[in-house]
Amino acid sequence: MRREPPLRATRPAEPQRAVLRAERRFDPAAGQGAPRVEMAQGPAAGRNPDAAGRGARRGPRRLPRIIRALPLLLSLALGIWALSTNPFAQPFLTASEAEVRRALDRALAHVLTPARLEQEIGAALAAEDLDRIDTLLPVAARVGITPSLEQGEEIAALREAKDSVWGKVEACGTCAADIANCPSLQMLAYCGIPLELTPIGDLNALRRAGGDYLSGAEVDSVEVTLATVGLAATGTLALTGGTSATVKAGATALRMGRRLRTLTPSFLDELARLADPAMLRRLVSGTGEAADTARLARAEAVAGDVSRVVRNTSMTDGVMLLRHVDNAEDAARLARVSDVAGSETRGVMDVLGKSRSFRTLVRLSDTAIAAAALVWLAVAQALTALGGWLGARLLRPVARGVAARLER
Q1: What distance in Å separates the CA atoms of residue 198 and residue 195, rounded to the nearest whole number?
Q2: Strand partners, 373
Q3: Where do the segments described as Disordered lie (predicted)?
Q4: Element of type H or E holding 331
Q5: The pTM is what?
Q6: By residue range, what is the domain housing residue 132?
Q7: Does one domain contain both 236 and 317?
Q8: Domain total in the chain
Q9: pLDDT over 90 percentage in the chain
Q10: Four-residue CA torsion sign, 44, 47, 48, 51
Q11: Alpha-carbon distances of 205 from 198, 272, 370, rounded to whole Å
């Protein structure tokens, strides 16, 4: 039986190594493109050539990633710089008169629609409230809205019925005796306010307080103080000129608001603290302190703001607008609104309300807007980048599986 020779493993005399593309050089003796193996020298001889190739390819791949990250990095840098300036420490600034006017017009056009005007005038006609109608019509004309033809005829008929001669005479006498019993604001303006602006109105208020004191009833100290201030301002009007006239008008409007119950409880409490009869006695006698002087200055500032509202509108509207004032700061804001709205202030406040009307006096600062926009942009870019990275990681196995199936 023939035996086969045993198999022996053969090894090459020298280990063979593939010639790398980077090691090929031009050799004139071997010809164009002939490979020539060069032995690496030095400490780099033991390195993996595949790792060196991956390192060489990694550099060009980083550049697109850096370029894609530049917008996010720039937004983050600008946002951090903007936030370092504390833009939200005072985000709201005082708006100019032109900005307030534009804001009021936009708000009125949004709120006072033709449907609402028709509803408001219909309710006023049902209640025979001509004062309400006279308040709404100028504001509606400001935004270019007019009542319907039928409502116009009803308004004319109501106005004619209210304008009878004997009715006016009787209402005028009632308003002159006591403005609290005045049947309409029109009669209040014609017969009540002219008398109240004279010293007779202040003396009449003191007469009522004296009667309450003698009868044992509670005396309205705020009305007494305001009447006293009005009389004092009338007496010094020739000496101080416009300053005393402003105080007189403001004190009269506040006293009338107290009588007509248009003063809010919080504003009435503040007036009670500011218009203290004991404080006035101390100041007149020369024994007043610095606190009394500060309270008097604040009271004069409130009277000046109320007088400004009266000057921009009318005494009647100024008294009725006091129902929107809760403190001295509200009086200053109302004066600013009246500077822009003028004679339409009462209608604007009734239609828009106190909060929306006062919000038109301020605007968001440009730095706060820019900082908020940068923060939003940086967050949006970060979320977009995160979504793209997660999508690529989640969809890559699916894409490979689909490609494998298509190759089959």
Answers
A1: 6
A2: none
A3: 1-58
A4: helix 328-341
A5: 0.66
A6: 114-163
A7: yes
A8: 2
A9: 22
A10: negative
A11: 12, 17, 56
